[in-house]
Design a protein that fits this description.
The structure holds two protein chains of two kinds.
Chain A: H1 16-43, H2 48-56, H3 58-86, H4 90-116
Helix pairs in contact in A: 1-3, 3-4
Chain B: E1 2-7, E2 17-22, H1 32-42, E3 61-64, E4 67-70, E5 83-86, E6 93-95, E7 98-99, H2 102-110, H3 130-134, H4 153-157, H5 164-175, H6 183-190, H7 204-208, H8 215-230
The chains are: A mainly alpha, B alpha+beta.
Chain lengths: 119, 231
């Protein structure tokens, strides 16, 4: 650490990427939600048999994977935005960032297990 | 007319207080600034800034009944009593309604609010077509009163990092100028999660701008240009 330097370095050269990815992932989330609602309406409800048949299709599993991946990426950008505003000390913010990434990656693993796991 | 005014002198007072005033107004007192000047004849310890008294200099920006605005162009008839006056939120108070605008101007200067053009100047002037000139409407009128930036929570949380609506409006004013040659450097300067992208489009800036300008739209156009050059 340089002591006594009161400069605010800015210009991380990213920002657009996060902003744009949040919008793109929002579209993916919306499309999947509409698809899911459409399926529920098509079958006139949702029961175990329909659910099981739906997730037996690999295409639907892939669509669900895309949805969850988009959701997790969207959440990462959003939660980090909140941390940037409210968690001021750099060490605290970095620690919280790592916790959030850990939780989100764990969700991703869990989801893959649910979608393609045995049983 | 009844007023409740924020009073604070950091050198003397332990903490700020709201002082009540009830003064008779004259039929010539039409704007809030007229009333403040009259108040000053009753209590000359009250401190506020004012200069042109017609909405051009931007000195008398303050928080009027919870909303930022210019005292000189706020009609007294539109105000509910008691009129509560506070300094612009989010900036350090120097005294009463006077705030320290250093941070605000630091952000303004950080966007290079001047024309950058390295070609030799022509004999008379750099010409613009009427259409090119029209691009600057809604941008050049900003008087830097700071009503918008101090109404923006993103500026409250990160005044040292987020340029704020006023600065970004000016950034776009020069990005949009056909005579300016520095568009890429200007976009680089703002390509940052804090400087530009702390804006979450809540549009408080548009709501309070006493000149009726739209910083949110300018921010949107900067983002559009960034997308255009990246995608």
């Amino acid at each position: 650490m340089v002591a006594g330097v009161d400069k605010r370095p800015v210009g991380a050269h990213y920002g657009l990427r996060d902003w744009l990815s949040q919008r793109v992932t929002a579209i993916v989330i919306t499309l999947y939600t509409l698809l899911f609602l459409g399926i529920v309406l098509w079958y006139g409800g949702m029961d175990y048999a329909v659910w099981k048949a739906l997730f037996a299709s690999n295409a639907f599993r892939v669509a669900t994977f895309l949805f969850m991946a988009a959701l997790l990426w969207h959440a990462w950008v959003g939660v980090r935005n909140i941390l940037m505003d409210y968690a001021k000390p750099m060490g605290v913010r970095l620690a919280l960032d790592i916790v959030v990434i850990g939780v989100l990656v764990a969700y991703l693993g869990w989801m893959i297990q649910v979608l393609w796991g045995q049983g | 007319m009844k007023f409740r005014i924020y009073r604070y002198d950091p050198e003397k007072d332990a903490k700020p207080r709201l002082q009540e005033y009830d003064i008779p107004l004259d039929s010539h007192d039409r704007m809030l600034l007229d009333a403040l000047i009259r108040l000053k004849t009753v209590d000359d310890s009250l401190a506020f800034r004012r200069s042109c008294r017609e909405g051009v200099c931007g000195s008398d920006a303050m928080n009027i009944n919870g909303k930022n605005g210019l005292a000189c162009i706020t009609n007294l008839k539109t105000l509910k009593e008691p009129v509560e006056l506070r300094p612009l939120p989010g900036l350090p108070v120097i005294r009463d309604l006077i705030v320290d605008m250093s941070q605000f101007f630091k952000q303004y200067h950080s966007v290079k609010p001047y024309l950058v053009n390295d070609t030799p100047p022509p004999e008379r002037e750099r010409l613009q077509s009427p259409a090119e000139r029209e691009e600057l409407d809604g941008l050049y009128e900003c008087i830097l009163c700071a009503c918008c930036s101090t109404a923006c929570p993103s500026f409250w949380w990160n005044p040292d990092k987020f340029v704020g609506p006023a600065g970004l409006l000016q950034a776009y004013r020069f990005i949009a100028d056909s005579r300016d040659q520095d568009v890429n450097a200007r976009l680089d300067n703002l390509e940052d999660p804090y400087r530009l992208f702390r804006c979450h489009t809540i549009m408080n800036c548009v709501d309070v701008c006493p000149k009726g300008l739209n910083p949110t739209l300018a921010i949107e156009k900067i983002k559009d240009l960034m997308v255009k050059r990246t995608v």
